From TrEMBL:
The protein's name in its UniProt record: FAD-binding domain-containing protein
Pfam families: FAD_binding_3
Organism: Mortierella alpina
Keyword Oxidoreductase listed: yes
Keywords in alphabetical order: FAD, Flavoprotein, Oxidoreductase
UniProt xrefs under InterPro entries: FAD-bd, FAD/NAD-bd_sf, FAD_mOase_fung
Family recorded in the similarity comment: Belongs to the paxM FAD-dependent monooxygenase family.
Gene3D superfamilies cross-referenced by the UniProt entry: FAD/NAD(P)-binding domain
Amino acid sequence: MPIPRFALEDDAAFETKVLISGAGLGGLMLGALLERAGIDFAIYEQADRYIRIGSAMALTANVLPLLDQIGILPMVLEKSKPVEKVECYNEKLKLFLPLQYHHTEKFAGYLARVIPHPNLYDILYSQVPEHKILWGKKIIRIQDDHDGVSIGCTDGTSYRGQVVVGADGAHSGVRESMYKGLNEKGELPRPDKEDVSFNGVCLLGETKVLKADKFPQLRESSSVIQTMGSLQTAETITRWKSQPAGDMCEALKDLPLPCGENLTLQDLMEETSRELLSKIMHEERFFQTWYSGRAVLMGDGERILQR
């Protein structure tokens, strides 16, 4: 692909203090905080629009105080459910790790919550002025100097600010550009040059509203997280390959569920829209270098826990 010519936007672009790459949960949260602090910012997202992800987020006492502080906890409580216990089963439905969380509210001040990813995204999105989110802006170049930092996007536009934050996920363009510059100067640590390790696959989805007569645990006031053990071990996984989520669904459809009599994963799949099913490749890496000059990384940009 030819390298685009970069043209600076109008003078207003120079007034932006913080350039945020990525309009995910981390980027929106940072934007919400900066908005309240009165610090000018802009968010640049490579996607043309928000893509709904069929997954859920667990919110615990390490983040709930922040949501409370900025005044959005009531909205989160309305769209989420409390988590009082987590049960881990093996593939034979034998419970091997029961965890109780009802006591966390007493010593941490907050009971853990689980919330659909789209609901949390909508809440955070509502806290950021729409004109401060620029869609279709994939950052491919960062130029740091004494007076500020410039970013260049694939569409040929360029923006300038005081600091750039890479909140653009596991495959961060900000990190890639930052590491390229450090590597050329011989300043990138060897561990940060190594490949990311692959350690598993996760099937994610978000069902429609379920009926309590078929899934009796829905009658409980709190949520229950049930984790199934792997059908394979590290020794039996002999190859890695890309595979559509539909193929994975077919392979796992007969996996029994502990949330009702004679239920299998197929029962949940039948209540899930195909566009809300996704397969995630789990990768793991903690990077040593998470800032350089006027660029800093956050979230999966500086630590990869999944792809």
